[in-house]
Design a protein that fits this description.
About 5% of the residues have low confidence. The chain is about 40% helix and about 25% strand. It is an alpha/beta fold. The strands form four sheets. It has a nine-stranded mixed beta sheet with strand order 9-10-8-7-6-5-4-1-11, with helices on both faces. The protein is globular and about 60 Å long.
Length: about 400
């Protein structure tokens, strides 16, 4: 039986944050929630026969704000999930939650469904910063919801925080980090604020002018690494820290090239050597497809190629602090890593951005600071041969 992970997209939220470019929208009605969940369950049914070949090792319910769903709807989803899929007993099952949307009854429902991991989007412990970001909660509401989660029995909790916010100083960021560490969550994700085209933030010259400089942002990340290590958190990926045994297994599937199926509006998949995504059109997803023909809502289907697999192996795997294994590269692609990437590797090892540790190539501390720049060089030049070659058709190595 093969392993697979499931992603379930819930596009609803109470309010759109100023930096958000995810497929989500606010002001949904209860009837829209129910209609969406009903369609999600119909989509799940379409995979009933194929699901027999798989064991689900992780589930991630993201959004949007999944915890906005009316009580009872998550239970309906999981009743269908368990009837269609073989979910491993030890599967990691995560739901994203926004502070201010959780109740004791919802948390009890999640536990009943088998959800064993919560991801709470704090972003900042400074109420001024939260208000400026357009968040629906304050720090006090976060604390109340965090305590509710602990009282409900959740022993695997992630807290998301953000660095490099408009007007944020290293001191104010440090206070956020210290307050989160006092709570001792099992996992902490630290992301730099990204200015995405089309967002409220991108259109606000006033806020853009308040963004910290590159050196301040870099200082925040070095401070984070030092403090986290002292508190017993391992940095296992560029933006993620965990106590021993609590690294996010679902995200690791993405970083290591595992198979995953996305369910819901706009959800992306990598399955059977094909990458595809569901339609992002609300009406098309809910009303304009025959419920026994899942292909009607699939978009952007692209067959995997040897070139794309090599690229993803490198630039996703290098996000992990353990780096990438040259032995695994050879086993997957039937050639040596240096035959394809020798010049790139040599250049960045010489510059101090990459290093070898036994079998594994990984970013150095200096390399992490410029990781986007380094990893971009692991994208292979496009040629008719490398673009068109399906996985498995070549036993020899691509030439750089």
């Amino acid at each position: 039986m093969k392993n697979i992970s499931l992603y379930i997209h819930i596009p609803f939220c109470m309010k759109k944050c100023i930096y958000c470019d995810f497929l989500s929208f606010a002001d949904c009605s209860l009837s829209e929630q129910r209609s969406y969940v009903e369609t999600l369950m119909q989509e799940m049914d379409c995979y009933r026969e194929q699901a027999k070949e798989y064991q689900v090792i992780s589930i991630f319910i993201g959004g949007g704000t999944p915890s906005i769903l009316q009580e009872g709807l998550v239970e309906q989803l999981f009743h269908k999930l368990y009837s269609v899929w073989n979910i491993a007993e030890e599967a990691e099952i995560t739901i994203e939650c926004n502070p201010g949307t959780l109740t004791a009854r919802k948390l009890a429902e999640y536990r009943t469904c088998g959800i064993n991991r919560l991801s709470l989007g704090l972003q900042s412990a400074d109420n001024r910063e939260l208000k400026q970001l357009g968040r629906i909660h304050n720090y006090e509401q976060f604390i109340a919801n965090y305590q509710l989660a602990r009282e409900a029995g959740f022993r695997n909790v992630n807290v998301d925080i953000m660095a490099a916010l408009p007007g944020q100083s290293q001191a104010s960021y440090g206070r956020t980090l210290s307050k989160v560490l006092e709570l001792k969550p099992e996992h902490i994700s630290v992301y730099s604020l990204m200015v995405e085209e089309g967002t409220t933030l991108a259109r606000s010259q006033e806020l853009l002018e308040q963004l910290p400089g590159e050196q301040t942002e870099r200082n925040m990340y070095h401070y984070t690494k030092t403090i986290m290590k002292g508190m017993g958190y391992e940095r296992y990926e560029i933006s993620n820290y965990a106590k021993t045994g609590y690294a996010c297994r679902h995200n690791r599937v993405y970083w290591t090239g595992g198979e995953y199926l996305g369910l819901g509006l706009g959800a992306s998949s990598y399955w059977n050597g094909i990458r595809f995504s569901n339609t992002s059109d609300w009406n098309e997803y809910l009303y304009e497809w025959e419920k026994d023909d899942i292909t009607k809502i699939r978009k952007n289907q692209v067959s995997d190629t040897l070139k794309s697999r090599m690229e993803e192996f490198m630039f996703l795997g290098l996000r992990l602090m353990e780096g990438v294994s040259k032995t695994e590269f050879e086993n997957r692609f039937h050639c040596a890593m240096e035959e394809v990437y020798g010049s790139v590797i040599h250049t960045y090892v010489e510059q101090g951005f990459l290093t070898w540790k036994q079998d594994r190539l990984r970013l150095t501390e200096q390399g992490i600071d410029v990781s986007n720049y380094v990893m971009a060089d692991f994208l292979l030049d496009s040629t008719p041969e490398t673009d068109a070659m399906p996985v498995g058709e070549a036993d020899t190595c691509l030439e750089k």
